[in-house]
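Worked example 2:
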Amino acid sequence: MNSVALYLDYAATTPVDRAVAQAMTECLTAEGDFGNPSSTHAYGRAAAARIARARAQVAALVGAEPAEIVFTSGATESNNLAILGAARGNADRGRHLITSRTEHKSVLDAFHRLEKEGFRVSWLTPAPDGRIDPAAFAAALRADTVLAALMYANNETGVLEDAATIGALCRERGIAFHCDCAQAAGKVPLTLPELPIDFAAFTAHKLYGPKGIGALYVREGARGLLQPLTYGGGQERNLRPGTPATHQIVGFGAACELAAREVAAEGPRLTRLRERLWQGLAALGGAHLNGAAAPRLPGILNVSFEEVHGESLVGALSVLAVSTGSACSSASADPSYVLRALGRSTQLAQSSLRFSIGRPTRDTDVDFAVAAVGEALARLRALSPEAPGAAVVDGWAGSRAPGAAIVSGEAGGRGQETWVRFHLLVAGDTVKEARFQAFACPHTTQVAAWLCEELRGRTRERLIPGTPGAWAQARGVPAEKLGRLLVVEDALRSCLTHWG
């Protein structure tokens, strides 16, 4: 068990509930129900009975019939099966599709694949509150539209889509409507047959079940709209063949039964904790709640902070396990596409934190998180080039030798991904002290701090110690971040132009 960081990333994944783990172990060993559920002997019948019970448990969570539940490896596969299967299966009726720019990657990439196959996609941008305007959706409909997909709850902001209104627009025109419900199932009351939804994806590991198992809800009557992606033994209504993973399915069922029992009480509790967290963060100043004007999931809070770099903020919060909308350690420096679609600036999109709370979260955890974020914000904002440079060089003016001067230079700037400023205390032709300010990722900040040590005693002619490539190698900076070190080098060159 990790006792260092407070876990506030339940939207990413949840720990398996102990009762769920126990149910799973009963299907693994020779003493349990380990048989192949497709076998007709006693071992197979016992495993099949386990799966039948689990299917009923999963169906009950979303108000569906057991026959409407198709087991998959998770929401990603479910999204692909619904989107690719429905589009290809109805291509003879039309090749126009609709989705939004803020969907999960498993949805976006499926639609991009279909574009390569000749389908035409209308990519809708949400309103500033994070929801798709039904009027904008209606305007995108065409005579050849055969499929629309919108997530029920956004995985970054927690914003709840108006699935009832948009689904009704699809139903009256005979258009298949798919919802990614991965974040919603087990978190809010959900009765899928009462909604104009044909397909819905969800997964076990978001509701205290195991990873690697999920489901696709296929409305009775909509099976004929779906073409399978794989072929084999005919399992799962001929939509997802293969030997069922009994232990994972059983764990999924147990998790859904627990969630169904607790959702009525847990929802209000998480909403109260979410609001307590927001009030604490708002009091720190420069905080923006993403999706504030829309209905949201109880357990997700997405906040953008002014004057800090998102990746550095997460790095400074080693006591918290949270997610950020920025690209963190990935090769891309792009900010969250979800928050950019909501109209957030690049800086605010990069400096967003997604806090997601869960069953184990308590008031004391929320208060601890607020205090930790407050401390990190204060430290990073003091280091930012937005802060007055005089504070950084405090103490130099009164102690420097006669003839000494302060030379400053910077590169990058406000609104850019990297912004670095150096301050050098120079006497004659030599650097006596060096300090920096930075709006940058942790790797860039670390290199700037290291260079300040290296700059002491260097002359003007040999001010820059080496190259960005050498710095990256010496400090273990990933190759994809080398471009950010070029900004550091440019800041030092700027110092040279001001060293008169």
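The first helix runs from residue 18 to 25. The radius of gyration is 27 Å.
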